[in-house]
Description:
By secondary structure, this protein is α/β, with parallel strands linked by helices. The chain has helices at residues 13-24, 40-50, 59-63, 79-87, 103-114, 129-136, 139-142, 161-171, 236-250, 258-276, 296-306; strands at residues 2-7, 27-33, 54-55, 68-71, 93-96, 119-122, 145-154, 175-186, 189-198, 203-210, 217-222, 226-230, 282-283. Strands 12-11-7-10-9-8-13 form a seven-stranded mixed sheet.
Amino acid sequence: MKKIGCVNIDTSHPRSFAGYLQKSGRAGYYAIYNDGFRGEDEVAGFMKTYGVQKRCVTLEELAGNVDACFIHSCDWDRNLGLAEALLKFGKPVFIDKPIAGRLADCRRLEELAAGGAVILGSSSVRYAPEVVELAGQPEAERGRFLTVFGSVGVDEFNYAIHIVEAIGGLLGPGAVSCRFLGRAESDGKRSETFLVRFQNGTTAVYNTCLGVGQPFEMMAVTTRTTHQFRIDSSRIYGALLDRICDYLETGVNRLAPVAELTESVKIMLAGRLSRERGGAEVGLDAIPADDPGYDGTAFGKGYAAASKKIYA
């Protein structure tokens, strides 16, 4: 069984991942390092519930005891620093979504991967069976993708990144621009819509619904027909974790390359800039190098303040 090192338990993902891994018998959380907002009582509860054997006080100690490390911080601005510290010890690092929230961090992660670092990620929805099945169908049967629509709820980045990664899972890389199309508001809820253009002429539309949970709904229009489906969220964690376990056991990596993960972030960065500029189309290559992106520190503070204990 492969040993996983857990870095922080800010979100509910460690609980969900640990439960699935326990049933699979292929891997498990063996050690934990925590400098997030969860207290020692929750760390102790997580360790007891899921059989985590070692409490580490440094990242070096964690890396020395495991086969791979999983970063579960709710502040995505910390992901790069944590990953760099762990990658120095030659261990694969999984970064939970969003992998980053600003262009500079995306570029640095791409540099690390190009230099041989193994960085795994990020959204489980990218690997949803429905997405993988449709993407894998022969084009002669499925038709060539013309446009893809995806809808998601909750917020504009931390959760919405799921649907943009799912679009990436269907269409692959090659996005060149994003444009804000408009919004609708009612009863304190806001829906916003963005158009993504790809180098090969394909387009995608993603829709966020802020303040309310929504299913992951997708529609793909091809040259032969229209495919419409709702992603079964009960299967997405297993789809991601099975691929990670496959890699740890065989060395064959079937997860998306870092450049594809960061492309999803760049799409959303361009979309945010387009919204600020009144709907002007923004190229992914035109995002300013000093663009502040999405504020992970602010999100993390708000997330911590709103969170209840889930591990104690």
